[in-house]
Amino acid sequence: MRISRTGYLNYINLSFPIESSDVDFGVITLRPGDLNRNGQVTSSDLLILFANYSGRGYPITNPLADINGDGVVDYNDLQLLLNNFMLTADVDG
Fold it and tell me: Domain containing 51 — which CATH number?
């Protein structure tokens, strides 16, 4: 099973037991900041964010850099990326 969202680290579970007809996956959190979609939040993603860092009224050239989706690439997006800096995609199995 793979759960993904563009700009976020993927969650990949290679196997999971099913013991009944009801399956509860619980809470799965996708972590934002993987702007280049390589499965890691690294300095490359930080460069993408800084290339689009602008403030209100400036066009965003890469919409993935607007991590929180408020139409502005600013400190709030930077903070979200830094919260996940150096993390990799979750892989269970």
Answer: 1.10.1330.10
Number of folded domains that form the chain: 1
Beta bridge partners of 3: 11
| DSSP β-ladder status, 2-3 and 90-92 | unpaired
Q: Give the count of alpha carbons within 13 A of 92, CB side only.
A: 10
Please tell me the distance from the alpha carbon of residue 8 to that of residue 40, in angstroms, as a whole number. 9
CB atoms within 10 A of CB 55: 9
Q: Rounded to two decimals, what is the model's pTM?
A: 0.76
Q: What is the tens place of the pLDDT at every residue in 37-67?
A: 998 999 999 999 999 998 666 778 889 999 9
One-letter amino acid of 23: V
| Pairing, β 90-92 against β 11-13 | parallel
Averaged pLDDT of the chain = 84
